[in-house]
Amino acid sequence: MFELTPYSRSRMLPGSWLRDFFTDDFFGGLSTIKADIFAEGDNLVIEAELPGFNKDDVKVKVNDKQLTISAQRKDANEERSEDYIRRERSVSQVCRTFIVENLDADQIQAKFENGLLRLTMPKPQELQPKVKEIHIK
Q1: pLDDT tens series, the chain, 137 aa
Q2: How many Cα atoms sit within 13 Å of 82 on the Cβ side?
Q3: Residue 28's pLDDT is what?
Q4: Domain limits of the chain?
């Protein structure tokens, strides 16, 4: 006999439901975006990993100090058959918000290539090194 449920037998054991509560069976594909933030000259760069997503799946929004990266992909299988045992569809969704002071949305450049989103923006003034030459008399 074979199982018709998407759960393994080990999940039927007492206490295993608690351990597995935050796994993909409950929150299928909802996770966070891994990102690197670094300075590159006078710019601030955010590189966000979005494996499996296409450019059209990704959105970048700026609201005041908040820069939000989100992506959503729906895997739809349109093949219809009356004799299937189980049929599944998945939706993958990720979202992450960054707080950046003095953010100018018009100055942000975005590039998406091979699952990597690269956002480049001028460093906020408070991150710019303040060097002032002192006049000697």
Answers
A1: 333 333 444 445 555 545 444 444 444 444 678 999 999 998 999 999 999 899 999 999 999 888 999 999 877 655 666 777 776 767 788 999 988 888 889 999 999 999 999 999 998 766 566 777 888 88
A2: 0
A3: 46
A4: 17-76+87-125
Rounded CA-CA distance 43/17 in Å is: 47
Residue appearing with tokens 């992450």: 96
Q: Do 126 and 58 contact (CB within 8 A), yes or no?
A: no
In Å, what is the CA distance from 31 to each residue of 48, 89, 91, 117?
Answer: 13, 17, 12, 16
Q: Which amino acid is at 25?
A: D
User: What contacts 47, CB < 8 A, 6 or more positions away?
Assistant: 35, 36, 37, 38, 116, 117, 118, 119
Q: What is the pLDDT of residue 137?
A: 85
Of the candidates 118, 124, 82, 83, which has an alpha carbon nearest to the alpha carbon of residue 101? 124
DSSP-H helix ranges across the chain: 16-19
Q: Which pair of structure tokens corresponds to residue 119?
A: 């956002």
Fold type of domain 17-76+87-125: Immunoglobulin-like (2.60.40)
